[in-house]
Amino acid sequence: MAEKKDPNPIWLATLGLFIIAGLYTTFRIVTEGHGMLSSDDQLVWTMPIATYVFLALMSSGFTQMACFPDVFGLHEFKHLARRFSFLALSTLLAAFLALSLELGSVFKMVYFVFSPNLSSPIWWMGAIYSVELVFLIGKLVKAQILVGETNFISILASGVSILAPLMLGAVFSMVEARPVFFGLFMPVFFLVVSFLCGIAMANLHTRMIYSSSERSHDDDLVETLDEFAKAFEFTLGIAVILYAMRFVFKSTTFLEAFTGGFNLIPLVILVLSFVCIKTLGPNSLIPAMLALVGVFGCHLEWLFDGQSQAIGVYQGLFVDASAYWSNIWEWLIALFAISVMLLLFTLGEKLLDLEGT
Amino acid sequence: MTRYAMVIDRQKCVGCGGCILACKNENNLPEGINWSYKISETSGTFPNVRFNYTPTLCNHCEDAPCVRGCPTTAMHKLDNGITMHDPDKCIGCKYCMVNCPYGVISFNWETPHKAAEVKAPLLGEATSTSKEMEEVAGGTGIPYYNSEREETLEGIRSKGVVEKCTFCDHRVKNDELPYCVEACPADARIFGDLDDPNSAVSQLLGKYEPYRLKVESGTNPHVFYIRDFNPAENNLKKGGI
Question: Is the ipTM of this complex over 0.85?
Answer without folding.
Answer: yes
